[in-house]
Design a protein that fits this description.
Layout: H1 8-15, E1 22-23, E2 29-35, E3 41-49, H2 58-71, E4 78-83, E5 91-95, E6 104-106, H3 107-115, H4 137-146, E7 151-154, E8 157-161, E9 164-174, H5 188-200, E10 204-213, E11 218-229, E12 237-244, H6 245-250
Parallel strand pairs: 3-4, 9-10
Antiparallel strand pairs: 1-8, 2-3, 2-7, 4-5, 5-6, 8-9, 10-11, 11-12
Length: 257
């Protein structure tokens, strides 16, 4: 099954001259950050939906390499999880640095692996994100087993300067008019987590919004609304301005349209 398809920002970046300056996962792979109740990032995970036992794919290897670059020098560990498509998770393949193979482990053992990173799990099932229209078996497992005390945030998009990451970018879109939309307060826990991850690596963290229409369905990326989010400042979230998609591809901090 394919998830989260049809993102206009990704579609533009694939074709633009700055493609090599960006990294994102799509289809059946996710780059996830897990944090504790204080929004401290504890592990960055590459989760891949694929048949168990096959050789690692180029996309999986690239995902792990990028996760290592994002956490370089921070002390935050990285791991890799592969789960079988369209079936309830009982076993997964699991890897972390120092392991020479990618063994198959049970669901309970996977939970123990996350606990070792300092994540305290409770019995309250985590709520499904309001933006999460499609769930993979892994995301269902995550909500059922980790509980509400573990904060989980997808890394939607990364900007690079050569081999070095410079920005974590959260992509948002809805039917709300461009001038009226602001980041939802209920998402702030994820933003705190991503902001803390970014600053540990000396990266910037931005929220990027585009408008879309319902009928006909149209993902309008011609104009983007940019917010800067920094957990260290008195006002966590501030409007940075508006950019055309071309300006955004050049630089998040570019001249306003």
């Amino acid at each position: 099954m394919d998830y989260y398809v049809g993102n206009g920002v990704y579609d533009y970046l694939i074709e633009c001259n700055h493609r090599e300056d960006f990294f994102w996962t799509s289809g059946n792979m996710w780059l996830l950050t897990y944090g504790n109740e204080d929004y401290e990032p504890k592990v960055v995970t590459v989760a891949s939906e694929n048949e168990l036992g096959i050789r690692t794919t180029e996309a999986e290897r690239a995902g792990v390499d990028v996760a290592k670059k994002v956490t370089e020098g921070t002390g935050i560990p990285v791991n890799f999880i592969r789960f079988a498509p369209e079936r309830r998770i009982e076993n997964v393949q699991y890897w972390e640095p120092g392991m020479k193979a990618i063994p198959e482990i049970s669901s309970n053992d996977l939970k123990k692996r996350f606990i070792q990173y300092g994540l305290r799990m409770n019995q309250l099932m985590a709520q499904k994100s309001i933006n999460d229209k499609s769930s993979s078996p892994y995301h269902d497992w995550q909500r059922s087993n980790m509980g509400s005390s573990v904060i989980v945030a997808d890394i939607d998009l990364l900007r690079f300067d050569g081999q070095n990451p410079t920005e974590i970018l959260e992509l948002k879109r809805s039917y709300i008019a461009m001038e009226e939309w602001e980041p939802y307060r209920q998402d702030y826990k994820n933003f705190f987590l991503l902001s803390k991850l970014a600053r540990k690596r000396d990266l910037d963290f931005y929220i990027v919004y585009n408008h879309r229409t319902k009928n006909p369905f149209y993902d309008d990326i011609s104009r983007l609304k940019i917010f800067e989010f920094d957990h260290r400042t008195a006002t966590y979230c501030r409007l940075l301005g508006y950019r055309t998609i071309q300006q955004f591809a050049d630089t998040t901090k570019g001249e306003e349209e």
